[in-house]
Amino acid sequence: MTMGGTLRVVTDPQDPAVEAFADLVARTFPDPDLVVTAEGVRRRVAGRVTPERIDFLLVAEEDGRLTGAAAFCYLPGPDAAFSGYLVVDRTQRGRGWGRRLFNERARLLREAAAGLGRPGPRALFIEVANPLRLPPDRLAAERAAGMDPVHRRRIFRHFGFQQVAVRYVEPPARPGGQPVTYMDLLCLVTDPELQRAGWLPAGMVLETLRHAWPGYIDAEAYLADLRAQVQGDRIPLVPVEGIEDDAPGAGRKVGSP
After folding, report:
1. Does 178 fall in a domain?
2. CB atoms < 10 A from the CB of 253, how many?
3. Enclosing H/E stretch for 74
4. Sign of torsion over alpha carbons 85, 1, 104, 68
5. What is the mean pLDDT of residues 59-83?
6. Given 52, 129, 157, 219, which is the most exposed site by the fewest CB atoms within 10 A?
7. Which of these, 51, 55, 41, 52, lies nearest to 210 by C-alpha position?
8. pLDDT at 61 > cutoff 80
9. pLDDT tens-digit series, residues 174-194
């Protein structure tokens, strides 16, 4: 199917796309602790370039309407990237918007790294719900929202993501929220040496999260929990779990990122 529409990076915090993006996230994710506020997005857009990170809000639009978006950042210190959201409006799924956002995100991250004389990003990190740990009410809500977690994880595996072998706790997406304990940290490794190694340097992972997580949380408490799990200076990468046929929701192709 031939697609129209455009992709662009939002640079004005008062751009109407900011509010539209926050609304799309709220309609997509049933857990309020995963939903960023419009004010939080505006702050990121307003201060999108700092020595520690370069933020992007990439929006897809057609006929003046938001069809999807991705929010992510490049982190020069660890030469890595972190993507908080890649979402497509439920009525627009299956038209290729997710793939276009995925590819443009990769291009912008390479461009950001090259602009700073860095070879990377060496890896892209994302947070994804694990259906094996989702509470039943959350699993039902995700299915109702067209966000089947098994199908999503199969997509990420197809794209080349692996699971970072730690017990991950995601900080809340808004001040005053609660930590989310049913998420996993996945990673798409692009550095050839790390691809061959099958593990990530622990320092790289911790530095990435320190700068990627929101500033209103106590990052040290979360990082201390991760450090306690790490043996030595390496964190293994393992196949994405929760995609087997006997996992909750398996076989239901309900939605895509």
Report:
1. yes
2. 11
3. strand 65-75
4. negative
5. 97
6. 52
7. 52
8. yes
9. 999 999 999 999 999 999 999
Q: In percent, how much of the chain has pLDDT > 70?
A: 93
Contacts of 118 (CB under 8 A, 6+ apart): 76, 79
Say which DSSP state 33 is in.
Answer: G
pLDDT recorded at residue 147:
76
**Mean pLDDT, residues 24-37:** 93
Show the tokens assigned to 143.
């299915």
* Tokens coding 59: 């929006």
| Number of domains composing the chain | 1
- Report the alpha-carbon distance of residue 95 to residue 176 in Å, rounded: 37
164 is written with which tokens? 């970072």
Question: What φ, ψ does residue 252 adopt, rounded to 5°?
Answer: -100, 105
Please tell me what DSSP assigns to residue 87. E
**Cα angle 55, 64, 104; round to 5:** 35
User: What gap in Å lies between CA 139 and CA 27, rounded to an integer?
Assistant: 15
Domain annotation covers residue 1 = no
CATH number at residue 203: 3.40.630.30
Closest CA to 78 of 42, 46, 118: 118
What pLDDT shows up at residue 247? Answer: 41
> What number of residues does the chain have?
257
Residue 256 counted as domain residue: no
199-201 sheet: strands from edge to edge: 6-9, 54-62, 65-75, 80-88, 123-129, 183-189, 162-164, 234-238, 199-201
Q: Is residue 248 a part of any domain in this protein?
A: no
CA distances from 233 to 45, 200, 208 (A): 34, 9, 15
Domain ranges, residue 165: 6-238
